[in-house]
Structure formats: structure tokens, C-alpha cells
Design brief:
- By secondary structure, the protein is of the alpha+beta class.
- The protein has 13 helices and 18 strands.
- It has an 8-stranded mixed sheet.
- Helix 7 crosses helix 12 and helix 7 crosses helix 13.
- The protein starts with a helix and ends with a strand.
- The mean pLDDT is 92.
Length: 415
């Protein structure tokens, strides 16, 4: 959530920045509600003062007639206070609903424009021309059964078996152990969260159509581990010495993929249910860029350990997500598609999420401040499986990278 005082005090800048994200903001509407709110709060304070005056007079008054009048006056004030409270709640709710619709402001370092303005910052490894398409490979090897997924659920669900499941489990353990070694704390999390958690991280109300919800319950299947990990600190005050907070978790992720009809229908590029290892940091604002680099290097180190060519891409404003102020994607080379595809998205959210979740920390002057939150995929498991198969299969043999062999228990998979 954006700071309303910042919006009003920097209205021209906010209009321009949000327009770069494709969002037109009505500053005048926000100013009207903000003014109404301040007026109602002032009236609330005046009424409270009057009530206190009546109470003081009542204590010193002995005349019954005067006391009756004071009681009547007090009751009138109480009624006005009640009406004022309802007005304040209504205005604050309308103002909150407006603010919840506003995306985060893009960082100054973010190029303005759509995805054509994305900037490649770095490339690693040499893309190979390997004539292996993971979707064809899975059909022949029978390690994935899409028809069974449809039979059990619907399209974009799949059933995996045998060596592929074992390889997936090895990747999850490999990634989690890497993050634990680098100072992250591992969590096991609920796969269902309430609406407050999703509002807090920016999935609601904006992306309601992308979520799977439970009928007659305020519960949703998580779209990413970022939601429960960041939500762990909802309504908490963090000591300065406890920052940075570094968390990781493996979770399934559930997305309806609204608006993706016809895209990536072959294989397991785009699924309703997929596995991911997530890393989240909560930091002091001035440490945000340093922390983003730490997250990127964590994800990149895994890709390099697996000998998978990738590139680092800074997203332009129009391609940057709703809650993020800055996002750097890691794209892995997929020979089957002869292109790079996103395998990790690493973002700075500034205080956008911490305001919505009411996460604060005490600075060196013991002042309560909103920390910055960051997250990154490290990595998306399904796409890592695809990259391994398409980059490391030769003559129907998948060669397991050396750093992964001890987790898998062998150096090859015969297909």
C-alpha cells in the first residue's frame, strides 16, 4: 500500500510513475476522501472534548435540574459521537479500497515502457542447440501422464511418476540445503491462507481471478510461498538486531492461470499446480539493493551448479508486477523452445507489503518504521526439471549435474 501523505504531497510524480505501469490514478478522489477523513477526525476530537467538559461539570454540580440537563447534553454528544464514528469508518473503508487498488511505484532504475524495454543485464553459459523438447520427451518416457491429471482434476494438472518424481525431490532438497547454508531459515507452511494474508502481499483484490478459493470459507490455496512467508510477520514489531530476516520454504503453488488460455499447453511450462522453492527477506530500507543482489546470486548459483545457461533481465515498468517497485527475472535457456524462459523472479517491494500487513521495526532511535520486503524464486522446480532434461540429455540418457548427484543418488537416468 502506498503512503497516502506521499501520494498527496507528490501527486504529479505519482501520476507519472503509475502511468508508466499502465495505471491511471485519480488523485482528486483520494484528496477528497483524505480531507473528509481529517475533518471527521477533528470533529471527533471536538466532541470528545465537549463530553469531557460535561463530565467535569457533572461531578461538581449538585443541583438535580442542572444534572438532568448535563445528562441530556451528554446523551446528545454520545449520539453525535456514534454518528461520527460511522462516518469515519465509512470514509476510511472507501479510502482503503481505493489505496488497495493502487500498484507500487516503479523504482527510478526501472526502464519506462512495456516488455520490449526490458534490459538484459548479464548472461551466463553458452546456449546449446539440443534437439530435445520436454513435452515430446515426457510423452515417450511416460514419466508424466497428462490424461491422468485431467481424469483426476482437469487440464493443466499432471501426474508424475518414477525417476522424474525422484529428481524433483532431489532438486527441492538441493535448493533448500543451499539456502540454509546461506543463512535462511526453513519453514513448513499452510497451503491455505486467509484473505488478509493475500491482501497484505498484493494478490487481493487485484488478482482474485487467479486464485483458487474454498467455498463458504475465507481461505485460498496459496499462489506462491511468498504469501505465507511474508505473512508470518503480520502485525508484528521487529527488533532492529533481528534484521535482515531471511526465510525459505518449499511449497506447491496453485494458480488458475486466468487469461492464459491457449498459452504453453504442451508439457509442464504452465500448470495450475506446481512446485517452487521461495526465498523472502525483510530488511532495513537502505539495505534493499544489497539484499536483492543476495537473492539473485542465490538463484544464479543454483543455476550455475546445475550448468544451466541463463540471463539476468531487468523488467521495464509496464512489465513489473503490481506489488513490486523493481523486478529482475532470471531466464533459463530451453533448447526445445530455442528461447530463454523465466525460471525466477526477484523483486523489491519497498514498504508496499509491510504497510498492508502492518509489519514494523524499531530503528536505532527506537522509532517504529516500515521495513522493506523482497522475494525471489530459487527456483521454480518444474521449469528446472525442463531445463535439466532439455540441456543435459544425450542419446536418451539424462546426465545429472555433479552437485545434484548426491541428492539424486546416481549420475544418470536412462530414458
Amino acid at each position: 500500500m502506498l503512503n497516502i501523505d506521499y501520494i498527496i504531497d507528490n501527486d504529479k510524480e505519482v501520476i507519472e510513475k503509475l502511468k508508466a505501469k499502465g495505471f491511471d490514478i485519480d488523485i482528486d478522489e483520494i484528496k477528497i476522501y483524505s480531507h473528509d477523513r481529517k475533518t471527521i477526525i477533528k470533529a471527533k476530537e471536538d466532541l470528545a472534548f465537549q463530553k469531557n467538559q460535561i463530565s467535569d461539570k457533572f461531578k461538581s454540580t449538585k443541583n438535580d435540574q442542572d444534572k438532568k440537563k448535563l445528562r441530556d447534553d451528554s446523551q446528545k454528544i454520545e449520539k453525535l459521537i456514534s454518528e461520527n464514528k460511522e462516518k469515519l469508518e465509512s470514509v476510511e473503508l472507501q479510502l482503503k479500497n481505493i489505496l488497495l487498488q493502487l500498484p507500487n511505484i516503479p523504482d527510478r532504475s526501472v526502464p519506462v515502457g512495456d516488455q520490449s524495454e526490458n534490459q538484459i543485464l548479464k548472461s551466463w553459459g553458452t546456449p546449446i542447440d539440443n534437439n530435445i523438447d520436454h513435452s515430446d520427451f515426457f510423452m515417450k518416457s511416460l514419466l508424466i501422464d497428462s490424461e491422468a491429471g485431467v481424469n483426476l482434476a482437469k487440464s493443466r494438472f499432471t501426474v508424475m511418476r518414477g525417476d522424474l518424481v525422484k529428481l524433483q525431490r532431489a532438486l527441492i532438497s538441493f535448493m533448500l540445503d543451499f539456502h540454509l547454508h546461506n543463512g535462511y531459515t526453513e519453514y513448513y507452511l499452510p497451503y491455505l491462507v486467509n484473505s488478509d494474508s493475500l491482501i497484505g502481499t498484493g494478490q487481493l483484490p487485484k488478482f482474485k481471478d487467479d486464485l483458487f478459493s474454498i467455498v463458504d470459507e475465507d481461505l485460498y490455496l496459496i499462489p506462491t510461498g511468498e504469501v505465507p512467508l511474508t505473512g508470518l510477520y503480520k502485525n508484528k514489531i521487529i527488533n532492529l538486531n533481528d534484521l535482515p530476516i531471511k526465510m525459505t520454504s518449499h511449497t506447491p503453488c496453485f494458480r488458475s492461470e486466468a487469461g492464459s488460455y491457449g498459452k504453453d499447453t504442451k508439457g509442464i511450462i504452465r500448470q495450475h499446480q506446481f512446485e517452487k522453492v521461495e526465498i523472502v527477506q525483510i530488511v532495513e530500507p537502505e539495505k534493499a539493493e544489497e539484499s536483492l543482489e543476495d537473492i539473485l546470486q542465490s538463484a544464479e548459483s543454483i543455476l550455475e551448479s546445475l550448468n544451466l545457461p541463463y540471463r539476468r533481465v531487468l523488467l521495464a515498468s509496464g512489465d513489473t508486477g503490481f506489488s513490486a517497485s523493481k523486478t529482475v527475472d532470471l531466464e533459463v535457456w530451453l533448447p526445445g523452445q530455442k528461447s530463454y524462459r523465466e525460471i525466477s523472479s526477484c523483486s523489491i517491494f519497498t514498504d508496499f507489503q509491510s504497510r498492508r500487513l502492518n509489519i514494523k521495526y524499531k530503528d536505532k532511535d527506537n522509532k517504529k518504521c516500515f521495513p522493506f520486503t523482497l522475494n525471489g524464486s530459487a527456483l521454480a522446480i518444474g521449469r528446472t526439471l525442463i531445463a535439466l532434461i532439455e540441456n543435459h540429455t544425450r542419446d536418451n540418457v539424462l546426465h545429472i549435474p555433479q552437485d545434484l548427484q548426491s541428492f539424486y543418488g546416481a549420475d544418470i537416468i536412462k530414458l
